[in-house]
């Protein structure tokens, strides 16, 4: 089913649809603000780029990632839109979807205030899941064949990111061990800018598609459909999401840059390049297979893999512990908020 821009604008006359769109764009903005800085964290902290130009570069490549990858491969958007079942009542489904998005904003902003990297990916999945369970009254609101990809993503982002970070860094050391250190530092100072651009592009490609999937659900519900299976992603929707994420990224998040790139492990330019390349590759593989992953997970695990090449003690485990606790609490915390919000919204509206 094709959705025109004029048809979309007309659908905003529906209060539930308007609320859903505003909240979705708000979450995309927050994602650009809080998650996207992870992509440039190592480049900034190794002094490959200053923070402001790095943030501008990241905003541009986030925009391109959403726009280009969605046209090439939109499987992540399809996974998100199909992993939950809100039932056959389109009006109630729209209300529950709005509740899910409200819970994501509340949870994400709260975590970002303290400068702790939060996973909007996990918040989104938890919010949709909690709302679907609330409206269905049971776990039949979950399509397990699609939801299982979330578990795959948790494993892939951690294991693949760490392994690739370790392997790439090892290879770089072996290749450059007999070269002049000053020359290699200059080379990798430039190369990690390209690595940060690749990370930013893949962040947009992965996370942008997740929110496109949410908007597809909203448009399906407002047109009386129970799922977005027959929906075709229009270019104007890609543009809307990519611009919103780019603007959010331009706001920046220097607390998060410091937490991810500096506090976790002290990096040299070649290590920053290795972690960026490893993170970008792990996100690319997951995106091509339609597996929603946390870009924060992918980046931080690749940094840990790079740090482990030197010695495990070089990793600041207190920062790692704080991140892991945040991720662990996201599913039950955001899921419960979404469940309660959905019940409340359905009761009131």
UniProtKB/TrEMBL annotation:
GO terms for cellular component: membrane. Its main location: membrane. InterPro entries: Phos_transporter (IPR001204). This is Inorganic phosphate transporter. Pfam families: PHO4. The chain crosses the membrane at residues 12-33, 54-74, 94-116, 123-139, 151-175, 187-206, 226-252, 273-291, 324-348. GO terms for molecular function: phosphate transmembrane transporter activity. It is a multi-pass membrane protein. The keyword Oxidoreductase does not apply. One of its GO terms (biological process) is phosphate ion transmembrane transport. It comes from Lactobacillus mulieris. It is found in: Membrane. The lineage of its organism: Bacteria, Bacillati, Bacillota, Bacilli, Lactobacillales. Keywords: Membrane, Transmembrane, Transmembrane helix, Transport. The keyword Transmembrane applies.
